[in-house]
Design brief:
mainly alpha
Length: 415
């Protein structure tokens, strides 16, 4: 009989984050199809993202309270069942229900429950495995979300190109094979004991700590800055920049994920030699520059470079904030990771949704239309550019917050 070790556990966690990448990034690649086949508006597409991350948010809240009671192994197995079921429903329901959009929403809710559970559980499972380089291990773990995103975008885009857009519904069923395999893997791998209940910092005490309050706000901004670009990059490239879908997907969301994966992998390997706070400050500044490149430059390929480099700029934001907070409160336990994940999902919900709303409103603005006409954009292009430009507020807030957090951390260390 095969003997499973913590190395196998880490590999299962990597596959868990690849599953999360499928959950977050597969549906946006179908946005143009949903628009043309099912008459779905920009706001409705943004609402899909809001519902998805909102569901993950509610799941995070539930898991904060009940994860330790359910048990990590049982909970992570249930999570993968939800993921498989949701992917199958995404293939079947839109074409079988009278209201296709309602079918997409139902599927989104089901697989997002699984995604929310995975998000809360995987980080503390890895954090509990014995080892010293916790921040590097966390960044390497999150790099598999990025490489999973690359895989999803690359494979889905090329398969759609080969088989045709009308057969899009076969892809969610095919992607369901990964969480199905991981379900059986998590049944066998060992799980390290997490922080004992009597040793954990009470959640009420954490919620009163200045650094933790700021960390919650920073997680909101990290999620919003990442997903505002990630979720809209495919549609923005095709309709906002007027490039072919295959080219737009490969140079937009695919390269975004490649650069995000590179950033996380490099930190995962060299993280013990890099100042985390300084890296987060640099990431925020680069993120601001990337949003400006993507939205304000007239040349579509410069805009696509901005979209792609944005992946590098956000690569450390989410895992970096988890590591920064875990280092400040090493006995925070699953509840701490759950609260941070919940805040991250709030940002992931708000960023793309706000972008969609602003894009719709901007298309009806005389000022925006006049600016668009001057630049040679139609109403849809101008609206998308303005909607995405608004998301620059998130890395700006994050930059200010990290500077404050670094001062507070130094002050606490001195005391």
């Amino acid at each position: 009989m095969r003997q499973y070790t913590y190395k196998n556990t880490v590999h299962a966690c990597y596959l868990g984050y690849i599953t999360s990448a499928i959950i977050v990034n597969l549906a946006p690649l179908f946005f143009v199809i949903f628009q043309t086949d099912f008459n779905v508006s920009f706001e409705m597409l943004g609402r899909l993202v809001l519902v998805g991350f909102g569901t993950q948010l509610l799941t995070d809240m539930f898991m904060i309270k009940f994860a330790d009671r359910i048990g990590h192994r049982r909970a992570v197995l249930i999570a993968h069942v939800f993921c498989v079921t949701g992917f199958v429903m995404l293939s079947v329901l839109p074409n079988t229900m009278g209201n296709a959009y309602a079918g997409i929403l139902i599927a989104t809710v089901i697989y997002s429950i699984g995604g929310g559970m995975i998000e809360v559980l995987i980080s503390p499972i890895v954090d509990a495995i014995p080892g010293d380089a916790k921040a590097a291990a966390m960044s390497l773990l999150h790099s598999f979300y990025s490489w999973g995103q690359v895989l999803v975008v690359l494979v889905t885009t090329l398969v759609l190109y080969l088989i045709g857009l009308s057969l899009w519904f076969v892809l969610p069923i095919a992607w369901a094979a990964i969480p199905l395999y991981n379900f059986f893997l998590f049944r066998k791998v060992p799980l390290a004991p997490t922080v004992e209940e009597h040793e954990r910092i009470p959640l009420k005490k954490l919620m009163l700590a200045k650094i933790f309050i700021l960390a919650m706000l920073m997680m909101i901004c990290a999620g919003a800055a990442e997903q505002a670009m990630s979720q809209w990059a495919s549609l923005f490239a095709e309709k906002g920049l007027q490039v072919p879908k295959v080219v737009g997907d490969l140079l937009g969301p695919c390269l975004f994920a490649v650069f995000m994966g590179i950033g996380r992998t490099v930190y995962g390997i060299k993280g013990n030699k890099i100042n985390l706070a300084g890296a987060l400050i640099g990431s925020s500044v680069l993120c601001v520059a990337c949003y400006l490149m993507a939205t304000l430059f007239h040349n579509p390929f410069i805009s696509l470079i901005g979209c792609a480099l944005c992946g590098l700029s956000v690569s450390l934001m989410w895992p970096g904030m988890l590591s920064f907070t875990s280092a400040s409160y090493p006995k925070g336990g699953t509840a701490m990771f759950g609260v941070l994940a919940m805040c991250g999902d709030i940002g992931c919900s708000l960023g793309p949704w706000i972008t969609g709303i602003v894009s719709d409103v901007a298309q009806r603005s005389d000022t925006v239309l006049a600016w668009g006409a001057k630049m040679g954009y139609d109403a849809e292009q101008a609206g998308l550019k303005i909607g995405l430009l608004v998301a620059i507020v998130f890395p700006l807030i994050m930059l200010a917050g990290i500077l404050v957090m670094r001062k507070l951390a130094k002050k606490e260390a001195t005391q």
